[in-house]
Amino acid sequence: MLKNGRNLFAVGNRTHGKAVAFAEKYNIGKVYDSYDEMFTDPDVDIIYITTPHNTHYGFIRSIL
Q1: What is the pLDDT of residues 45-57, one digit of tens each?
Q2: Has residue 62 got a pLDDT over 80?
């Protein structure tokens, strides 16, 4: 659990093995292999993009 009762719900990575390893290490229940799948999941309220800054526009455009 994060601060103020928030939970890290899921992790997404284009490399499935990396996503699974991260999820296992931090006890995260859901793994996405596709960013589009994560962006369209109605259970996701907030997405934190951790890729290099020059890639953010493309991801944000996909989300909107």
Answers
A1: 887 777 788 877 8
A2: no
CB burial of 17-42 (b: ≥16 within 10 Å; e: otherwise) equals eebeeebeeeebeebbeebeebbeee
3-state helix, strand, coil in the chain (%, to 5): 45, 10, 45
Q: Tell me the one-letter amino acid at 22.
A: F
Number of H helices, E strands in the chain: 3, 2
Model pTM above 0.90:
no
CB-based contacts of 2: which residues, under 8 Å, 6+ apart? 8
pLDDT of residue 45: 82
Two tokens, residue 56: 């953010």
